[in-house]
User: What shape does this take?
Amino acid sequence: MTNSSLPVGLPDSHARETVARLVVLISGNGSNLQAILDACSTASLQAQVVAVISNKPDAFGLERARKSNVPALVVPAQPKAPDRRVYDSQLADTVATFLPDWIVLAGWMRILTSSFLDRFPNRVLNLHPALPGTFPGTHAIERAWDAYHRGEIHQTGVMVHIVPDEGVDCGPVLGQETVPIHAGDSPEQLETRIHATEHRLLVAVLRELVQTTSPQR
Ligand code: GRF
Assistant: This one.
């Protein structure tokens, strides 16, 4: 999509904007969000985080956003909501107001339904702390650790992929990196190594994406 297809009435400043607009969805600590914010602030990533949205009011990533003067919003899930699609549709409405080029799921701990994904086709990225096709869902690092000690794997990794549908931690892979598991590792050491790899890979994938694509908004 090019700027000529921008919605009618969009301010000129948006039409002229060439820096990619990112909306980052989080549920917790936000260390990957921080990696993105840091890269944007040093211009090593030609992008701007235009909003951070959490489903959890106490997510520390919201603080990180505020410190960087980025709008930090909470869209809380209703515990007894009858239909996740209602939430996802409201979330999509909120995200859309920020005119994102890319939506980054950086520790977003909810499965998104087509009510959200269909609004942003091929523009939602997810980070998963394991290699493609391995350990989908929660506790991927712990499960890799256990699998290593059962002799089933020798290494693990991280990946960034497009989220095409409601499948969990699967979709076209934009980047992946293996992470070694050492015999003397504690679970914490493995986790630290994986997170450091995530921070690097996520920024690298975003850098390539914004350098090689036109604005998507
Ligand atoms: C990351 O390991 C991410 O891959 C997983 O949740 C973790 C979030 O970490 N889905 P943080 O909130 O970015 O620190």
The longest strand covers residues 47-54. The pocket of 5-O-phosphono-beta-D-ribofuranosylamine is lined by residues 26, 28-33, 61, 106-107, 127-129, 198 (CB under 6 Å). The CA atoms of residues 135 and 143 lie 7 Å apart.
